[in-house]
Amino acid sequence: MADASSVGSQTLAASATGAGGFVLTIKVIEIISAYPATFPRLAAELEAGITLGLHLGGQVYVSRAREVLADFAFGNSQPDVPVTTEMLHPWMSASKPLAAVAIAQLMERGRLQLDDPVARFIPEFAQQGKGPITLRHILTHTCGFRGKGREIPGTPWDKIIADMCALPLEAGWVPGEKAGYHVATSWFILGEVIRRIDGRGYSDYVRDEICLPLGLQNTWVGMPLAQFEAYGTLIGRMYLTEKGACVPRPWHTAEFCTWVSPGGGGCGPIRELGRFYEALLAGGANDHGLILQPETVALLTRRHRVGMFDETFQHKIDWGLGFIVNSSKYGPQTVPYSFGVHASDDTFGHGGFQSSCGMADPQQQLVVAVVVNGTPGEARHGKRIRLINSAIYEDLGLE
User: Fold this and answer.
1) Distance between CA 148 and CA 72 in Å, rounded?
2) 58-99, pLDDT tens digit by residue?
3) pTM of the model
4) 257 and 162, same structural domain?
5) Which residues contact 265 (CB under 8 A, 6 or more apart)?
6) Which domain holds residue 338?
7) Separation between Cα atoms, residue 373 and residue 249, nearest integer Å
8) d(Cα 334, Cα 358) in Å, to the nearest integer?
9) Are 287 and 389 found together in one domain?
């Protein structure tokens, strides 16, 4: 994969903010970044993001028919610390498909059915009107207990589950008849279903049954503290970039990286998210191992929720089982978690909070995984990820 040099327009300077933190400010000078020569439009979009202060750097992985076309890092993680392809970044909600695959594995093994009530496995979940909610409702974000806040990293697992079980069904919500994306609540419940059926905690299950069988050695959903300490500076930084300065988010800390959050706690090099999608595109297996049967992959990634207005995103979005299915037909310039304007209709995947995207396009046999280390607000990120994904198709002549 040949590289070409691209001249950028920014470098980084650190200023103290107290408590050992810092804010990254911008000084306009020339810097050099290396990008694959075959992706000029993509390089231009990534550099534009640096120029606009949306991010400082990131990682990109692209493959087609299992041939790796791009696997590179660009920009900086910290002052004087470049991003490398080996760095681990938070995947945020791009982690959700791991939970969907775990549930599908237990279905293949005869341990559950998609239309089983959650209360079959967690009896105390039925309180506050949630008895009718099924696993299918959770996987399609039609269950109706979104909650008003987010759990704090470090909260014990049992307390989180008790809190989720105590949440009421939202007023006027009939499970399956109304849609609204659940950031975290229902995904903790999926993790608890897996634990009660299998006996292993969610982190161990995903590591043993999905990551290691696919050779994803550096993918975690809650890593052991000793492993976190061993990675050291390989844990990449993420920044809040909404207001011009780049303020470090705490997602590189031990507290966050060791916390188990099925809906958004995945962490790893973005190439490993790409390899996860390669396995799904190949029917559930890669050269390392098998995680699902082809018919199960097809079940997860076809449309189950169609044409429903999402109360969280305020937009129509179609959903598979734990996967978003390309919803550009409801507004190519406005749809959240965009796969780009050129993605095929059956493209599936998931985005992560203002920073990442993993996707597979079966018609083009294309896999894309991207992470950028700045969170600039929903609107600016929505435009950024749409332009990045679209540029990849254009560079490959697939528009």
Assistant:
1) 38
2) 999 999 999 999 999 999 999 889 999 999 999 999 999 999
3) 0.93
4) no
5) 90, 95, 221, 222, 256, 259
6) 40-92+204-395
7) 10
8) 18
9) yes
The CATH number for 186's domain is 1.20.58
In a domain, 31, yes or no: no
Shared domain check, 346 and 308 = yes
User: DSSP character for 87?
Assistant: -
Q: CA 39 from chain center: how many Å?
A: 23
pLDDT value at 163 more than 60: yes
Task: Give the residue from 184, 202, 220 where a domain finishes.
Answer: 202
What Rg do the C-alpha atoms of the chain give, in angstroms? 20
Note the pLDDT tens digit of each residue in 283-303.
999 999 999 999 999 999 999
CA distance linking residue 180 with residue 173, whole number of Å: 10
Q: What H or E segment, with its residue span, contains residue 351?
A: strand 348-352
Q: Tell me the pLDDT band of 346, cut-offs 50, 70 and 90.
A: very high
Q: Are residues 46 and 146 in the same domain?
A: no
For residues 81 and 208, state if they share a domain: yes
Tokens of 23: 């804010």
- C-beta separation of 375 from 355 below 8 A: yes
- 271 and 197 housed in the same domain: no
